[in-house]
Amino acid sequence: MSRIAYVNGRYRPHRDARVHVEDRGYQFADGVYEVCEVREARLVDERRHMARLVRSLGELRIGLPMPLSALSVVLHETVRRNRVRNGIVYVEITRGVARRDFAFPPPGTTPSIVVTARSLDSAKAENTAAEGIAVITLAETRWARPDIKSVSLLPNVLAKQAAREAGAREAWLVDAHGFVTEGASSNAWIITAGGEVVTRPADHSILSGISRAVVLDALAAKGLPFTERPFTVAEAKAAREAFITAASQIVQPVVSIDGTPVGDGRPGPLALMLRREFHRHAEFT
Ligand code: PDD
């Protein structure tokens, strides 16, 4: 089936979908994005993802090129045209096309918008969850505002590649004080030997993950205590369980960190329970 992308007002065949060479997203990574899970052809937590998109745009003083109601139509239409039942929808908004100059382009420059959607193999994701994933740790090299979901992702790209070359699925980034910030494309969690569920507070040092918020809701609904505090790599390696959260992966158990098995080296029961329960605490549109 041929794929379709939405580019600045038009649905185009994916192979012909292009942005201008002077798009500021291309030249400066001057843009933001969101990734929503698609499940049974519906968007998961669209409202919260769009609220975060608006926040990211606001932090960078980029305008929203269309009302959220119209964007919602485009997201759903892109999912429909690509016949995605289970997968992801991606939206990117940049500061637009202008002659290359570091400072903002002239007022009135229209932001660019691209929406794509693709299917993901749910069976494969379940197999991954049943096995658990390996993570490595690396020094944090990103800028001071990872809370903005910017397309400026070079450190994340390098971290993910380093993970892949080490036979791992994710890299956890470690700040100057030895605390884990988050994964290259996910939030990081541990369950200590004492049973405390721990994740870093959503300050400027991490992306405030929507899946993270869903898991916090799920924990609260189950009456399971959790603490939002930084944790060290040593604490993570000594943890009973560990897992990651992201829209494209929901909850994935972590079974090793830098080659050290977490717990008994198999996916932990709480992580698997949170994965199973996840969508009961998400919103569908
Ligand atoms: N990544 N932290 C980072 C750095 C991320 O890139 C992501 C998501 C998350 C988790 O956020 P959420 O739960 O809202 O997806 C945390 C997306 C999926 C991506 O870049 O593909």
Brief synopsis:
With 285 residues, this protein is an alpha+beta fold. It has eight helices and 15 strands.
Work out the count of structural domains.
2
Instruction: Predict the CATH topology of the largest domain.
Output: D-amino Acid Aminotransferase, Chain A, domain 2
Helix count equals 8
The CATH homologous superfamily of the largest domain: D-amino Acid Aminotransferase, subunit A, domain 2
CATH architecture descriptor text of the largest domain? Alpha-Beta Barrel
User: What is the CATH class of the largest domain?
Assistant: Alpha Beta
Rounded radius of gyration (Å): 19 Å
Task: Summarize the structure in words.
With 285 residues, the chain is an alpha+beta fold. It has two domains: 4-120, Aminotransferase class 4, branched-chain amino acid transferase, N-terminal domain (D-amino Acid Aminotransferase, Chain A, domain 1); 125-280, D-amino Acid Aminotransferase, subunit A, domain 2 (D-amino Acid Aminotransferase, Chain A, domain 2, Alpha-Beta Barrel). Helices cover 29% and strands 27% of the residues. The protein contains eight helices and 15 strands. Strands 7, 8, 9, 10, 11, 12, 13, 14 and 15 form a nine-stranded mixed β-sheet that branches. The protein is globular and about 55 Å long. It starts with a strand and ends in an 8-residue tail after the last helix.
